[in-house]
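queue> pop job 88
queue> type: inverse folding (structure -> sequence)
queue> payload:
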């Protein structure tokens, strides 16, 4: 159970990190406009 929780937590952190990177790219591209 503990390993499953850790893997799920790691997946969520990775997903949030990717979302922040994509969001930052979109914001930097659409910011000037």
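queue> result:
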């Amino acid at each position: 159970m503990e390993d499953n929780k850790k893997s799920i937590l790691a997946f969520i952190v990775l997903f949030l990190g990717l979302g922040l990177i994509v969001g930052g790219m979109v914001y930097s591209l659409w910011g000037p406009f």
